[in-house]
Design goal:
This protein is α/β, with parallel strands linked by helices and 283 residues long. It contains nine helices and 14 strands. It folds into two domains: 151 residues, 3-Layer(aba) Sandwich (Rossmann fold), CATH 3.40.50; 103 residues, Hypothetical Protein, Haloacid Dehalogenase-like Hydrolase, Chain: A, domain 2 (2-Layer Sandwich), CATH 3.30.1240. The strands form three sheets. A six-stranded mixed sheet has the order 8-7-6-9-11-10, covered by helices on one side. Helix 1 packs parallel to helix 9.
């Protein structure tokens, strides 16, 4: 079956995983009425809804409430499963502390990279170069901590991950350089036009979504995953029905079974209406 020739999935969809920015959230960090209505209608049909995001748990909470999420969420690019219903961490992976320090030192040779360290749901920076809106909306609902040395933040414990933020024209090169430096010791992805991320081994959205589906007793072919970035590739590849947003890059689209309209055209809602609500009253 070719892209955009897809009819109904071979099995009814029981779990929908959505990325946030560029998928269900616009630049104002809000989901449109049509997207919200589609998610509510899916929940009413007994479908489980989860978020798969690079954000940490505190930042994800308000979006889970906004979207009516009724399953544990996949945070930290798949490194953490968290259940807001019980306020419990179900599983978590961390980045080796010594490796994190190596990467921080490597990044120091690239002054246009802004290094951000995540540890225990807090974020730490050595300098503040972007606006408060940038930190508040894209990184954390909390003020970042300014510290003299990121390598000493975690003490003897392992941090969650590293993000390198920069002007968008530098991101692709940064991802390439980080992958060459890290090798097989961690996972490097581009999660946003301005973000290159280094995550622990095993911390990708596909693995996180697989762990979640197994915990819910849901089969792979009963899962739909919707996203727009390279960091969503693994969950689209793993899900029975992988959907790419219409504004995604050609590389991202090639990995999808179906290409939805763009964010501005409520593509996530269109996908849910077509593959989950088809045969019911449309939203």
């Amino acid at each position: 079956m070719t892209q955009n020739d897809a009819g109904l999935p071979p099995a009814p969809i029981k779990l929908i995983a959505v990325d946030l920015d560029g998928t269900v959230l616009g630049h104002d960090q809000v989901a449109t009425p049509r997207v919200l209505a589609a998610l509510r209608a899916a929940v009413a049909r007994g479908v489980r809804i989860t978020i798969a995001t690079g954000r940490n748990v505190p930042t994800t909470r308000r979006f889970a409430e906004m979207l009516g999420v009724n399953a544990p969420v996949v945070c930290g690019q798949g490194g953490e499963l968290y259940d807001f219903a019980t306020d419990q961490t179900l599983s978590i992976l961390r980045l080796d502390r010594e490796l994190a320090c190596e990467i921080v030192q490597f990044a120091a040779a690239h002054p246009h990279w802004h290094t951000i360290l995540y540890h225990d749901n807090e974020i730490y920076i050595q300098r503040k170069i972007f606006s408060d809106q940038f930190y508040g909306k894209l990184l954390s609902s909390m003020e970042p901590h300014l510290v003299a040395d990121l390598c000493h933040v975690a003490g003897d414990t392992d941090p969650d991950k590293l993000i390198f933020a920069m002007n968008a024209e530098y991101t692709a090169e940064a991802v390439t350089l980080l992958r060459e430096f890290v090798g097989h010791r961690a996972i490097v992805v581009q999660s946003h036009a301005m973000f290159a991320e280094v995550n622990p081994l095993g911390a990708h959205k596909g693995a996180g979504l697989a762990r979640l589906a197994e915990s819910l007793g849901i089969q792979q072919e009963e899962v739909m995953a919707i996203g727009d970035q390279e960091s969503d590739l693994t969950m689209r590849a793993w899900a029975g029905l992988g959907v790419a947003m219409g504004q995604a890059s050609d590389m991202v689209k090639q990995s999808a079974r179906w290409i939805a309209p763009s964010l501005d055209e409520d593509g996530a809602a269109v996908a849910i209406e077509r593959f989950v609500l088809n045969g019911f009253d449309q939203v």
